Amino acid sequence: MTSGAEAVARALREEGVERLFLFPGGTIAPTLNAWIDGGGAFVVARHEQGAGYAALAAGRLTGRPGVAMVTSGPGVTNLLTVIGDAWYDSTPLVAIAGQVSTADLRGRPDVRQRGFQEVPTASLVAGIAKACLRPMQPDEAAPALREAFALARAGRPGPVLVDLPMDVQRGELSRPALAPRARAPAPPREPSEPDFAALLELLERSRRPLLLAGQGVLQSGAMEPLRGLAERLAAPVVTSLLGVGALPADHPLHFGYVGHTGCGWANRALVACDLLLVLGARLDVRQTGTRTEAFVPNGSLVRVDLDEAELRQPRVEAALSIRADAGAVLRRLLAEEHDPPKAERESWLAALARWRREMPLDDFPPGAGCHPAELLRRVDRLTRGEELVVATGVGHHQQWAARHLSFAAPRRVLLTSGGHGAMGYDLPSAVGAAFARPGARVLCVVGDGSFQVNMQELGTIAEHRLPVKILVLDNRRLAMVSQFQNLAFGRDPSTGRRPAFDFAGFARLYGFPAFSLAGEGDPVEETLVRFLAAEGPALLHARVDPACDISPMLLSGQTLDAMWRWNA
Question: pTM for the complete prediction?
């Protein structure tokens, strides 16, 4: 007979899972052993968060749910940050967790714990997962797993957790497992005819249109339709942070990303446009700023989104809200005839080009240490033309990477934590990227603070000799919060002036080639070339001038066309 664990392992293979990212433990051992006995590949991370973020990166890059496997208790609680990240950034993820036997599950809410390492998994993930499925019989285990994959992919993607009690894994099925029925993927949701007609009328009347591409464009694989429509309309394109790469950075209609740390000229375009078409972006506070009444004050706002709740409860009221797949709308628009007013479009594009010249990014002068913007621009030149995956943490380095490296999905992709803003996303995501895209260069750009959150995953990279290149921009600050504290309160006692560490020396303990840059005449170009050309993994510790802040930045109470600048 077949056990519940064997049925789950078989269902994973039928779903096309190539590799599990995991941290082992007793209550998940039956399923893990069944997977391994069937020849399944696996990667043991150094922490559950490392396993989860590696699976998350695989999901972002392939569009299929990555799979993270953990044990009960601390295994589940250590994975919560990753599940939250998948939820807020709409990333498909299937998490499989062990659980105590059904007889040991606490039966009443006033009983704190029955079984060792028992936690109320369903309650813990209720607000940050699409579902938590707990089969109570061995026969229910494989169907629950298949349902998890279907839910993770359906509509707006997200995380689903399967909670597997020990006796469900160990018990035998009462009848032979049925072969799964093939599920045809749901077609992309099309716009309604009245909504589409209203959109066409707004586009026809617009003289200064602006397209804002979010991650929904990337997830629907609609990069080419976006490019085609932008060229047909002669309309500029901006993106959200998670939409970076939807239009190639070197395309003449690409004008950067918007929001809190976006490009000043892109934010100014939001204020000046007479029509903003938002495609698959949430328009949260980091995109709109706090002054929502001043968001697109001179034009009409049109939103296209799959999530009805986002449209029903917006931060900013829209003239037209269309519940549909961003790619479906773009393809429909591209099939229509468009005759944009040539002179007015040229004037509009010329204005954006002028604002871009007048509002440079991170134009602080050289100081004591490496200039981060210049360093990343050099990295970009040296990797131009390569297939590239960049994984970042959260902080100043994240924004510098988004601003000064060039992206063009799907060949050049940025992986970062958007809505959850989780430090430590960086190194384990690079692990997942190295497995998911073995032919691409994987570059982990990370700050000294974010790096130390999940630095233990250097061990995973060393074990598998993954050719990840790690660029540590070390400014001895928790700089994003430090900048906020200085601007808001005039001091940063908990986040500024952090201890200095020899990150290159630490990497050498793991057997990596390691390099250092401190500015002051160091051979930057030569060091970068050697770092990028190193065989296997390598780390470059670049000491960045601590005085370098993110500039410009949108502060609370500011309008999008009046961002704070360090030299203003």
Answer: 0.93
